[in-house]
Design a protein that fits this description.
The structure is a homodimer.
Chain A: H1 16-24, E1 38-47, H2 48-60, E2 67-71, E3 93-97, E4 100-103, E5 116-122, H3 128-133, H4 139-142, E6 149-155, E7 165-174, H5 178-186, E8 197-198, E9 224-230, H6 234-242, E10 246-250, E11 256-261
Antiparallel strand pairs in A: 1-5, 1-10, 1-11, 2-5, 3-4, 3-10, 6-7, 7-9, 8-9
């Protein structure tokens, strides 16, 4: 379907291929709510020399870094984005050199290198449909902003040259639905699963919920508690701390929309 | 507890540390039924230069290669074997050079190299307790032999230089308990999970159940069907086909007995 044909469709009604086509065409938007029913993915591409450490870091830290797929050096498409191009199909990228952000392009082609191995990690946007289907509203979607994300005082299990803090996303949930939010998201272990922390931001070393480290603050209504899920931005925090010579990630909240169905990551 | 103190204990009553101590001391036995309630693991150690491909092979073939833990180059112990030594604590090893078996030592210390990265993969022995707890007998335990394993005509998803066939283990199950066997083992995805095939050996390219490629044949009683689970010997078949310069594995059926509880790999 061409951009003209699908122009009238709301983001949630797009197919994954249509969503990726829009982003390839230059649309820059957080992707929460896009292509309803389809899984979204975090991206981290590193030189081949760092790939084993990243994959082992993911294996040892499966809550923040659930691996959905890996594109080996030289591969730019795969089963998660058939007919796509990982260098262009994400709304916005962050380019790192020695752990420092050097660019935030909407098309990463000019920065891409043949030796980059790309990791696609599960994203908690994937279970938001399931939360909404059971009547739990998602604040950042309702409020039209990016999900708030925070670096925590909790450390990831390090691997070789890679270390860093756990990053979490936060969604306010009415206190009487807190147990439901845990139950529902527990069924999606491949996309961060159950929360890592419920309430008590200070327990994660978060001083001020209104000042997220990534994304946007959301309003928390009376009677709501902040619930924290492990976040796929965690490897970006590890890149900043560990300073590999080069890396490319997605911009937080600006995910790859994949062809995988949310339901394929659901356990009974 | 010393070897003298625990000498009277049956293998199933041993702690994992006691079991590893026996194997370190030279006992050579298939480990099915040892240290009841504790997970067992397949072993594959490869040079660092091959480690990324092995880990990605595991990620792309999670049914035969569920990663429970990885010891990086230079590490010989870890949370799965606290106080242990991966070079001595498995009952028997196989040493491969360029894909050919060159030795089958009970102590691998003399063969070990500082650049070896060790992968510990889930083993279906882990769910045998759960099968037996629901009254499904395990033939190779009853018959006192090693589990039968077969190379199949099904191919694994290849990665770089690594390719090979799926290897399966087989347990005969009474036809009226076939559904139960599926239900019970489905709850253990980290240790191969649900069967890959039920009945019909020819559909997997298995010509003769009485001639397994690894382990021992078991008797199949009237009314029983052969049920096939993905097997952690699969990476050994990939080593034989793909010929890395060097590799060390466990001898099929002779697993690492770990400190992890079976139940920790169970999903609801």
């Amino acid at each position: 379907m061409s951009a003209v044909d699908d122009a009238a469709l709301s983001p949630s009604a797009l197919t994954p291929a249509q969503a990726r086509e829009r982003f390839r065409g230059g649309v820059v938007r957080p992707t929460a709510g896009w292509a309803a029913g389809c899984a979204q993915a975090n991206l981290l591409a590193v030189p081949r020399d760092w790939a084993f450490e990243v994959l082992l870091f993911a294996q040892r830290n499966p809550k923040p870094c659930p691996v959905l797929g890996v594109l080996d050096a030289g591969e730019t498409a795969g089963p998660l984005l058939p007919g796509g191009d990982i260098r262009t199909d994400v709304p916005q990228y962050v380019v790192y050199e020695h752990g420092r952000e050097v660019a935030r392009p909407v098309d990463a082609t000019a920065y891409w290198r043949d030796d980059l191995v790309t990791f696609l990690l599960g994203c908690s946007f994937t279970f938001e449909d399931a939360l909404m289907a059971e009547g739990i509203r998602v604040a950042h979607i309702d409020q039209g902003v990016n999900v708030p994300m925070y670096r925590t005082s909790r450390r990831c299990e390090p691997v070789g040259r890679l270390s860093g803090p756990l990053v979490v996303s936060m969604r306010p949930v009415p206190a009487d639905r807190g147990a439901d939010a845990v139950r529902i998201t527990s069924r999606y272990p491949a996309v961060h699963g159950a929360p890592v922390h419920v309430g008590d931001p200070a327990g994660l070393g978060i001083a001020d919920l209104a000042a997220p480290d990534y994304g946007d603050a959301v309003r928390i209504a009376p009677g709501e508690i902040p619930v924290f899920w492990a976040c796929g931005v965690t490897p970006q925090a590890a890149v900043v701390e560990s300073r590999p010579p080069f890396a490319i990630s997605h911009a937080p909240g600006h995910m790859l929309v994949t062809d995988a169905r949310d339901s394929s990551y659901q356990v009974p």
